[in-house]
User: Which sequence fits this backbone?
């Protein structure tokens, strides 16, 4: 039997709205994943360090502050530089549709907007895992 996926859920920057991140963390945990929730007000360095130290397979970013372009670029850069293997990066929050291709170009695999069923996020991660 394979080990469960390890997922870090993080809230970068000064965004204190964490209800969605907690809902996602719970859904992923209920789906059998090991979830590390970092809490609010995390820096790029703190998030990247947690992913590396926890040997995470997936990083889920929750951003409602409008700073998604900055954080996607810096966090994905940090992971490329410090992680020993590929980490799936997904993002949730309110992003203007024209910004989604840009965060994906930074390294975010998928963006899940408001109203996305938690089952869709779980299914996406499972499909990614099956393709590894």
Assistant:
């Amino acid at each position: 039997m394979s080990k469960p996926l390890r997922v870090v859920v993080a809230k970068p920057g000064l965004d204190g709205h964490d209800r969605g991140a907690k809902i996602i963390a719970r859904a992923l945990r209920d789906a059998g994943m090991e979830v590390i929730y970092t809490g609010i007000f995390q820096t790029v360095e703190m998030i990247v360090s947690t992913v590396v130290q926890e040997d995470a397979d997936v990083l889920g970013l929750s951003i409602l502050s409008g700073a998604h372009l900055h954080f996607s670029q810096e966090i994905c850069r940090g992971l490329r530089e410090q992680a020993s293997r590929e980490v799936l990066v997904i993002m949730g929050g309110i992003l203007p549709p024209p910004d989604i291709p840009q965060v994906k170009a930074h390294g975010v695999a998928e963006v899940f907007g408001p109203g996305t069923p938690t089952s869709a996020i779980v299914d996406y991660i499972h499909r990614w895992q099956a393709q590894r």
